[in-house]
Write a structure and sequence with these properties.
Layout lengths: L1 E3 L2 E7 L7 E14 L7 E15 L2 E8 L2 E8 L10 E4 L3 E4 L5 E5 L2 E5 L4 E5 L2 E11 L5 E10 L4
Antiparallel strand pairs: 1-2, 2-7, 3-4, 4-5, 5-6, 8-9, 9-10, 11-12, 12-13
């Protein structure tokens, strides 16, 4: 869920498994304190990533922060189909893909941008990049289009 300028947008994994398990990964050195009312607060451990296992057969999802932004990655096991992944953005009045390949969500007065996807395979310990794009299906769900060509990073 993301709340921006009075609008709330919820990302939903269409057709995902309701039994997906969450697991905190990469404990951070800092702790956080959570206060409710006049309580003394509860201290809890913070983590760098949250893994949602098997949201689709052979596909995990990992949430993490990068340069102050919340991001998510899909980990697709060999032999699994990335075309199972379908995202719905409840609360967005319009969902579009711009000329750069970024996903744009319009909600209230806000514009939320998800950068064009990056996909790669690890081959012999090295990342080999695969062409990846967002696609909108007939009902407005966001899907991923992956190319077959493996290429080396150009950046």
């Amino acid at each position: 869920m993301l709340a921006v300028h009075g609008a709330t947008v919820r990302m939903r994994m269409v057709g995902s498994r309701a039994t997906a398990r969450l697991e905190a990964l990469d404990p951070l050195a800092a702790n956080a304190t959570y206060f409710v009312g006049n309580s003394e607060g509860k201290i809890f451990q913070t983590y760098g990533q949250v893994l949602s296992s098997s949201i689709y057969p052979g596909i995990d999802m990992v949430f993490h922060g990068t340069r102050g932004r919340l991001e998510f990655d899909f980990r697709v096991s060999a032999g699994s189909k990335a075309d199972q992944i379908a995202l719905a953005f409840d609360g967005a009045r319009e969902v579009q893909i711009d000329a750069r390949g970024d996903l744009i969500l319009h909600a209230g007065a806000a514009e939320i941008r998800q950068r064009m996807p990056v996909a790669y395979q690890v081959v012999n310990g090295r990342r080999r990049y695969v062409d990846a794009n967002f696609q909108l299906d007939k009902v407005g769900h966001v899907r991923f289009s992956l190319g077959r060509t493996i290429r080396t990073a150009s950046w």
